[in-house]
């Protein structure tokens, strides 16, 4: 079988018409993909992604008992229950809860994939689980969220980690962006996936530098724990909700 694996370094570089009928993976390592994975692993019932803060507030008001999570430009939002730090989403706060969620980059990337047959949420922390879920797919598109409209090293690193795992297990026809991300992953991290090397690489990214400037550098080690979670968040496009 001819199998195709593409990376798109920004959502705008992914042609929505070419995603139709295929499997897409949205990658926003710092931090939406990581936080969504952590929240669902901690027992959250579902995540409802929203494009705007106003939409998130309105939707939460219509859903009694739901919680609000998200950020703008890395900073927590006034009146929200959570920011976008994965450490906030612990079982004692999220078990059985629906979380209305909006972020600067990640939720926008999801809308680009509306026509895909499946939309998974991928990150470094659930890399192996995502790759197992992709087994048998004929075409996969990894859609990086970027940071403020720019390609970001953290997302490219996450994409490279997935490409590395997939290409070790099967033959794929990969695009040049996938080759770039694979080379980045192997150069920055190597074959053993050392957490410290991943942290150092994330710290050099646009998103990583922003977090350090905001005093949120503790989010970097959490986002760097390779294959730490066995769950694969999936966006149900019919109801626009993410569950595991």
Please explain how this structure is put together.
It is a single chain. This protein has 244 residues and is α/β, with parallel strands linked by helices. 50% of the residues are buried. It has helices at 16-19, 32-41, 53-62, 91-94, 106-112, 127-133, 153-169, 176-188, 195-203, 206-213, 219-223; strands at 4-8, 23-27, 46-49, 67-72, 75-76, 98-102, 118-122, 139-144, 173-174, 234-236, 241-243. The protein has eleven helices and eleven strands. The model has no long low-confidence stretch (mean pLDDT 96). It has one domain (4-230): putative 2-phosphosulfolactate phosphatase. Helix 6 (127-133) packs across helix 7 (153-169) and helix 7 (153-169) packs across helix 8. The two termini are 29 Å apart. A hairpin with a 4-residue loop joins strand 10 (234-236) and strand 11 (241-243). The radius of gyration is 16 Å and the shape is globular. The strands form two sheets. It has a seven-stranded mixed β-sheet with strand order 9-1-8-2-7-10-11, with helices on both faces. Strands 3-6-4-5 form a four-stranded mixed β-sheet, sandwiched between helices.
Distance between the termini: 29 Å
| Helical percentage | 25-40%
Q: What low-confidence regions span 5 or more consecutive residues with pLDDT below 50?
A: none
If you consult CATH, what is the topology?
putative 2-phosphosulfolactate phosphatase
Beta-strand share of residues: 15-25%
How many separate domains? 1
According to CATH, what is the class? Alpha Beta
